Amino acid sequence: MNQIKPTSQSDRITSLDFLRGIAVLGILFINIESFAYPDPWSPWKFGFETEIDRETRFWVYFLTQGKFYNMFALLFGVSFYIFLERLEKKNVGLKAMDIYARRLLWLFAIGIIHAYFIWDGDVLYHYSICGFLLFPFRSLKKSSLILAIGILMGIGLSNSLILTSKRKKSYEKFVKAKTTPIEQMTPEQDSRNEYWTSKLKLNERDTTHYEAPKAYYLQGLQDSYNHSKVHKGVVYHSGLLFPTLLIMIVGMILYRSGVFHNYRTWKHYWLISLSILTLGLSINYLRYYQWTFEYNVPVISYWKTVLFSFPKEILGLGYILILNGLYQRFFRSIKVNLISKIGRTALTNYIFQNILLGLFFYGYGFSKFNQYSRFELLGIVVIVWVIQIVFTFIWLSIFNQGPLETLWRKLTYGGFTSENEHDPK
Hints:
There is one protein chain. The chain is mainly alpha-helical. Helix content is 68%, strand content 1%. The chain has helices spanning 14-36, 51-64, 67-89, 95-117, 124-134, 142-177, 187-200, 217-227, 241-257, 269-293, 302-307, 311-334, 337-344, 346-361, 374-398, 403-413; strands spanning 2-3, 417-418. It has a two-stranded antiparallel sheet with strand order 1-2. The radius of gyration is 23 Å and the shape is globular.
């Protein structure tokens, strides 16, 4: 019997490494806020010293919030399909499913360790669960996959419309209740009035002093235990399940179409890509302009709800298509090795990022929590990039893979053999 071996480095699709590298570096723009501020999602409370901070927050969210997450998810769908396709070509039979299931199981374990010991905002274990749910979709025809995407979009859109309907009714009752004398208000009206009054007012910057969280590493473990719910059976992020599956299936369709090998497979590749990018930028501009500058204006319009239902997914897809085309058309010849090296070590660099951020912002490190403005955070992002690029360059000059990629492969393939297996080319 011959041991089943992973695919060699020479068989890697270089455009995918480049795209993963962009996604790893780009996701830092948003993840850093979870380490830096008590309430990172607020458009006004924390990190706003000058007007430029508000503008910075808008541009960061407009161009990056959720987009690089969706790039990762799409590329995960691509990798899922490639992995099983290559195992099938090695004639390993049903062991292909066993190997990939083990791969997902260890990704789940790595994600849990990351969530409990480094950062409780981990998405790796969520990806692994979505990976298991992808199995039935792999052998479906393209038309069936498109139907599945339509169903998932329908579920997401329905949930958004239901939420908007409830918000609209609540807001209309609030407006009507404002004409009711205070002494005649019911407890329900009073509670609703208090909620909407707080929601609609223009708030000031929070100047409260906040101690850095996780003063000691053991306290950090306790905080992560309280925040992460895997030990209670919550093994995926419920609000992200359908959108993540949707974009992963899109990745499978794109790979099947051949665009990651040759973008010219699509006759009108640039027109399609630019159209999706333009649509995504337009929707995201409207979405995040409201979220940043009109955050006190409730979204009770159904057409806005439809428009804002999939902004991140559309722009993430646009980024993938444009960057894929640019890489194949221009960048491949000039060898953007540094970004591709980051992509080859995406798992290591994703977790390495969060280790660095924890050491910088948390109490057991340099305790720089809530001490930097939104604009100043951009400088820290660049510093982390430089550290990652230097580390990755040195590591890959000595080893063929990142440390976690090596471990993941050994755990995935260890012990698997095949009577028909020959060493892969």
